[in-house]
Design a protein that fits this description.
The protein contains 5 helices and 21 strands. It has 336 residues and is mainly β. The protein has a 6-stranded antiparallel barrel with strand order 4-5-11-8-7-12. The model has no long low-confidence stretch (mean pLDDT 91).
Length: 336
């Protein structure tokens, strides 16, 4: 990041009944700010938020030890929390963790360094955010391009034009590169790449573009153009699932699974375990999934879908389950 970046902040409460809010807010985050009260130290909410941040693969966690004014800006209080959080970091499988002692009341170490804590020599919170290097695996990963729609103008100026529109989920692609259309496996070369009316030589992660191919390949919405290592095609994947709906899971119920631009019918074939949010361990399921439940499940899908592991690709590695009757999103999942 740089100082000209715009920060989008999602405030997700720590209470256990808002677990689904945390999962939703963290699903696209590049960093997590976890507030710890300097008086209370690491508590159950701290462990839960940290575990979810690790589960969702957030690359950077900043532990903000707040209300230092209420412990007289004591370095020992900061160091106790620093030491206690080491165990949380290991349990949550967090990648990068930084610690900042702050007092939001008067802005100590938020924007400007605090004269009350000369023992802290690290950056302020704002400086840390502005200089944070965010590197997602998608940027350098294998090329993935879920096709959103096929563009056929049928006009005199573009009589034979056939373009595939979508957003680059990962990797990059150049004109002349060979791609395959999954799940069919048909291959062709990239003839052109367009960003609006502008022709590009290359498309990168995050760009919404139109791609044309040298051959007239049968491709439609829900297919994925890929290059590099092939993704897996799976009808019975395992995944971590967060139940979002107010209504409980109905065993054997059919849902619509939406993954990338593809959809199919699916059911939860088996619940392997449910996360004990207090102990942060998966236990044998007791009854059906309910609001805020985090579980490890196996799906059964009516057709193979193009999949990557969530830790490799947050787009092709994630999905939602939708109730066919109401259209409500009942759950969100991350593929193993």
């Amino acid at each position: 990041m740089c100082s000209s970046d715009l920060f989008i902040i999602a405030d997700t409460p720590g209470h256990i009944q808002y677990t689904r809010n945390m999962v939703t807010g963290a699903s696209t985050a590049d960093a997590a700010l976890i507030l710890v009260d300097a008086r209370n130290g690491v508590v159950e909410q701290t462990r839960r938020h940290s575990y979810i941040a690790g589960l969702l693969g957030i690359p950077h966690v900043i532990v903000c030890i707040n209300k230092m004014d209420l412990v007289d800006f004591d370095q020992a209080a900061y160091e106790r929390i620093f030491a206690d959080y080491t165990h949380v970091k290991e349990r949550a499988h967090l990648q990068h963790v930084d610690f900042l002692p702050i007092s939001a009341l008067l802005g100590d170490n938020v924007v400007e360094p605090s004269s009350q804590m000369p023992w802290y020599e690290g950056p302020t919170l704002l400086h840390h955010l502005e200089t944070l290097e965010v590197a997602r695996p998608e940027a350098t990963g294998d090329f993935r391009f879920p096709v959103q729609t096929v563009i056929r103008p049928h006009s005199d100026a573009h009589h034979d034009f056939r373009g595939y529109a979508g957003r680059v989920a990962s990797g990059s692609l150049k004109v002349g590169d060979v791609v395959s259309a999954q799940p069919s496996g048909l291959t062709s070369k990239v003839a052109a790449i367009y960003l609006g009316d502008t022709a590009l030589d290359e498309a990168h992660t995050g760009q919404s573009v139109v791609i044309t191919l040298a051959d007239d390949v049968d491709i439609s919405r829900g297919d994925t153009l890929v290059a590099g290592e092939a993704p897996r095609l799976d009808q019975a994947p395992t995944a971590t699932l967060c139940w979002l709906d107010n209504a409980p899971q109905r065993p054997g119920a059919k849902y619509v699974i939406r993954q990338g631009s593809a959809d199919a019918r699916a059911m939860i074939a088996q619940v392997n375990g449910v996360l004990d949010i207090q102990a942060l361990e998966f236990h044998a399921p007791e009854g059906v999934l309910t609001t805020n439940s985090i579980s490890h499940i196996q799906l059964k899908i009516t057709k193979p879908l193009v999949m990557d592991a969530y830790r490799q690709n947050r787009i092709t590695g994630s999905f939602i389950l939708v109730d066919e009757a109401s259209g409500a999103t009942v759950a969100a999942g991350m593929l193993d």
